[in-house]
Amino acid sequence: MSIANPLRVAVIGAGAFGRNHLRVYRELELAGEAVQLAAVVDQNASAAAEAGAKFGIPAFSSIEECLAKIEKIDAASVCVPTVHHRGAAEQLIVSNVDVLIEKPLAPTLEDADSILLLAWKHDRIVQVGHLERFNPAVTAAKRFLNQPMFFESHRLSVFTPRSLDVDVVLDLMIHDLDIVLSLTGSPVREVRAVGLPVLSPKVDIANVRVEFESGCVANFTASRVSTERVRKLRFFQPHQYLSLDFARQDLLMIDVTAAAGMDLAKLAAMAEMLQQHGGHPSPGLSLNKVAVEPGEPLRLEISSFLNAVRNRTKPEVSGEDGRAALKLALEINQAISAHAKRAGLSL
Questions:
Q1: Within a domain: residue 324?
Q2: DSSP for 164-216?
Q3: Which phi and psi angles does 60 have, rounded to 5°?
Q4: How many domains, the chain?
Q5: Domain check: are 249 and 282 in the same one?
Q6: Are β-strands 230-237 and 240-245 bridged in parallel, bridged antiparallel, or unpaired?
Q7: Which helix (H) or strand (E) holds 189?
Q8: Under 8 Å between Cβ of 216 and 148
Q9: Do residues 304 and 2 touch, judged by C-beta distance below 8 A?
Q10: Which of 88, 17, 14 is nearest to 54 (CA)?
Q11: Nearest Cα residue to 101 out of 302, 292, 249
């Protein structure tokens, strides 16, 4: 598709996520990509008008109005609260619009399946907004995958009123669930979990252990009531330990062949020190700070979506991928509820 005939895109939702999507589409347009930011929709008319004025585009308070008044919309980002994903996505899909749906794909598997079935019937592309999949550190780590057997994920955030329509598993942890599912490529065998509400009516902090059929084990910790912001993933595979820092977009790899007897916790602590402060590893260990090409994950995600739309190819994070992450997240929430019941806690 040429710049003279660009993809015309709309953003549904003018909240924090929607404004970022609007910004990136406009940046890509100004950079010469074959895309044109055509409209913004938000049921809050003043929010829509404000966003429309900022980006110089028509603003609407409903998808119906937008589709009726804009001559052509090829693709859209769905950035409304999760509970409205199905309604918004289905209106767009039946109008032959490809969609990028912010994570999680939907609040329930029933909603997710309805979206995917409709997309299949109308031959529409559905990509799910698991933007950490596009983090350059994750992209770099994929080159070194070799039967990973143990993952440890920490995603901690300070409390904000954002995304309180879902719990911390669907809000934060689902990023790491999606990444680990993509890296293991194995069905889930067992889930154990504990979680507690702290500052909201929903679970705000959770710790999860997932065992896969391959024998791989993953520990996940997510909190939105932390005093610091941490986004890290570490994993061990035969003869190697890899440590990813999502925020810094860096990847540290240690050859642990010579350290077979070293305690994993000590090795992880050493890698943490090296990643933060630099220095040299212990004798007998081979350390490699992998070259990572920096980039904004959201921009990479949207560019990937637009490429899938132009070429009618399966998106890098497909609707099926989004459903798999949602399924595991919901299983975790069931395990949290079961644990709370056993412990006599009220959730």
A1: no
A2: TTS-HIIIIIHHHHHHHHHHH---EEEEEEEEE-SSSSS--EEEEEEEETTS-
A3: -135, 155
A4: 2
A5: yes
A6: antiparallel
A7: strand 188-196
A8: yes
A9: no
A10: 14
A11: 302
Same structural domain for residues 141 and 285? Answer: yes
Matching residue, tokens 């599912």: 181
CA-based nearest residue to 210, from 335, 73, 319: 335
For every one of its 347 residues, what pLDDT tens digit does the chain have, with 9 covering 90 and above? Answer: 456 689 999 999 999 999 999 999 999 999 999 999 999 999 999 999 999 999 999 999 999 999 999 989 999 999 999 999 999 999 999 999 999 999 999 999 999 999 999 999 999 999 999 999 999 999 999 999 999 999 999 999 988 776 677 899 999 999 999 999 999 999 999 999 999 999 888 999 999 999 999 999 999 999 999 989 999 999 999 888 999 999 999 999 988 665 455 565 666 665 665 555 555 555 556 778 899 999 999 999 999 999 999 999 999 999 999 999 999 999 999 999 999 999 888 77
**Domain CATH number, residue 212:** 3.30.360.10
Two tokens, residue 102: 């912010």
CA 308 to chain centre: 18
Q: Where would I find the beta strands (DSSP E) of 50-179?
A: 59-60, 75-78, 98-102, 126-129, 150-156
Is 342 inside a domain boundary? no
Q: Which domain range does residue 124 map to?
A: 7-130+297-317
Please report, for residues 149, 154, 272, the alpha-carbon distance to residue 234 in angstroms, rounded to integers and kept in the order given. Answer: 11, 9, 10
Token pair, residue 54, equals 């900022």
| Structural tokens at position 254 | 């240690």
What does the block give as tokens for 197? 């509400």
Paired tokens of 120 = 């299949």
Q: What is the CATH number of the domain that holds 64?
A: 3.40.50.720
CA–centroid distance for 206 within its chain: 17
Cβ proximity of 286 and 254 under 8 Å: yes
Task: Compute the residue count for the chain.
Answer: 347
Structure tokens at 305: 């979506």
- Residue 199 domain-assigned (yes or no): yes
Alpha-carbon gap, residue 160 to 168, rounded angstroms: 12
